[in-house]
């Protein structure tokens, strides 16, 4: 039987075709991977832009709500506290009849009114609020409750304060301001305790009242706006939020936040 030797040119052609095919397949794979990469990159950019817009919108809403709450506070203090002090001073002065002791008492009442006005001026001045630290803002809020005799308060701060983005601090303050407002309006509490703890890289805040408490599951089922706002804001800034309550045993808001490297301009 005759033996046929393969043509070297045929082998070269086959090898060339195989090489071209492999190269084309590699180019297709690279093209697909590049297309997927570009698409994912664009999706991430859109997600970042959406997240940034949502953050900025939340900052604006928080600032507006803080101002509105501040104006309500000023209105209450002018009517319920300072107005009553000035009315009392007027009555004391009218009834003094030249009696030095009663005049001194009226002067003392006016002095209390002036002290309240100075405290109130911190709320009126937006620059003062903007320049406050988170601790100072919370302390100012608690002091107001004490002055207005809504309930007694305590504030305990431990650890060395860590740096927190000012805008993040605004959202955190608004969350606790909302909790405090709910305590005043609904809890029937006589005491509010706030503990702020700083560790090396974490801020931990617990606020607890001794009020009537409520059913958490029922509130979530009813989609309570206050609770929903607090939780959504916590999620937005990457904080861990836990609201716990039991009927007859008060309510607690626990926030834990670890600052990230990113900056919100």
Automatic annotation (TrEMBL):
Enzyme type, top EC level: transferase
Alphabetical list of InterPro entries matching this protein: HATPase_C_sf, HATPase_dom, Sensor_HK_TwoCompSys, Sig_transdc_His_kin_sub3_dim/P
Keyword check for Zinc: no
Domain Signal transduction histidine kinase subgroup 3 dimerisation and phosphoacceptor, residue spans: 73-128
EC number: 2.7.13.3
Gene3D superfamilies per record: 1.20.5.1930, Histidine kinase-like ATPase, C-terminal domain
A GO molecular function held by the record: kinase activity
Taxonomic superkingdom: Bacteria
Domain Histidine kinase/HSP90-like ATPase residues, every copy: 172-255
Catalytic activity, reaction form: ATP + protein L-histidine = ADP + protein N-phospho-L-histidine
Alphabetic keyword roster: ATP-binding, Kinase, Membrane, Nucleotide-binding, Phosphoprotein, Transferase, Transmembrane, Transmembrane helix, Two-component regulatory system
Transmembrane portions of the chain: 12-38
Identification of the protein by name: histidine kinase
Organism: Dokdonia ponticola
Organism placement in taxonomy: Bacteria, Pseudomonadati, Bacteroidota, Flavobacteriia, Flavobacteriales
